[in-house]
Amino acid sequence: MTTFEREITEPVDLCLPDGTLNQAAVGWSRVPLHRANLRGWGRTKRWEYWCVTTPTHLVALTVSDLDFLALNTVYLLEYAPGGLELERTAIIPAGRGVHLPDTVAGAPGSPDVVTGPARPTGGKVRVEIRDEPGGTRLRARCLTQERLPLEVDLLVARPPGHESLSVVVPWDSRRFQYTSKQTALPASGRVRIGSEFLEFDGDDTWAVLDHGRGRWPRTVDWNWGAASGRTDGHTVGLQFGGRWTLGSGSTENGLCVDGRLSKIGEELAWRWSPADPLAPWTIRTPLTGQVDLTFTPFHNRRARTEAGLIANRTDQCFGHYDGRVRTDDGKEIAVDRLLGWAEDVHMRW
């Protein structure tokens, strides 16, 4: 299936005054231009998800407001066999104290996001997303299950002219999602666990943002894949989605090569084994051949939740992409062990 989406080049409100989708907002842009002026309660979902990777570690921060509750999470993974895997999630009834802006948190001109106590105890989590002259500052604190303090302090740079993929996915006038996916952003900093430090510095430290604002159906399934790094003499960011966009007329698929976005207006063919998520995946564009990749996982972040209004099944696999992609100007790029993830999610919320 090929889509015919228009490129948006001027700022636009996501919603009309009555809270329904503004049809003028439907399309995609190379920089975030939408203001998510959402109205209504119960089906509105807002989140900021950042993942910063190095060749040996990754750390992910989530701040989400699902109307009836908020989830703030810190996740750390060390890839080595027997390496660290730490996760702490704070569940906040009614989302009290979690306020996400209408625009990308931590971007110039957008309000800062600060949630959780300054000195969290028990299962509480502190997350800060702030704009700084050098980029977006990410900070987080929590106590691990072993009662060790975990602290994150990272700076994500904003290279001049760097393009990303922002797109509106419309199911109907009352159910729609605005997402801004930003890949291949240089990052630096460190993470402290107790008295030990993990360095997130060097040429192979990359950040990816998933910014989401929308009004969702009760049940949804999706695939999401992303990766960042250097390959074949280029800096490459991969951004792929699947299933949840089918029939909407929009896709969230794109390539960021040396800071320039190639929007892919085609639904991808995802092939993987739900029974064995650590088996290789394939992700291809069946019509144009613009994407032909194999993803080989080395770790599955598996989550299963049944908690009242929420039921979640997530297999988020981390691994490497290999194969080839083609930019919209026809340049073929060999992808060799590009670090990233691919996930299979079922959500009832």
Would you mind describing this structure in some detail?
This is DUF2804 domain-containing protein. The chain is mostly beta strands and 349 residues long. The protein is built from no helices and 24 strands. The protein has strands at 12-13, 28-29, 34-35, 44-53, 57-65, 69-78, 85-93, 113-115, 126-132, 135-143, 149-157, 165-170, 176-193, 196-200, 206-215, 219-231, 234-242, 253-257, 260-264, 269-271, 281-284, 291-307, 310-326, 332-348. A hairpin with a 6-residue loop joins strand 21 and strand 22 (291-307). The chain is globular.
Class derived from helix and strand content? mainly beta
Order of helices and strands: EEEEEEEEEEEEEEEEEEEEEEEE
Number of helices: 0
Average predicted confidence as pLDDT = 96
Radius of gyration, Cα only, in angstroms? 19 Å
Distance between the termini: 28 Å
How would a crystallographer describe the biggest sheet? 13 strands, antiparallel
Shape, per Cα inertia axes: globular
Which percent band covers the strand fraction? over 45%
Kindly state the number of beta strands.
Answer: 24
The figure for the number of domains is: 1
Organism: Streptomyces castrisilvae
InterPro entries: DUF2804
Protein name: DUF2804 domain-containing protein
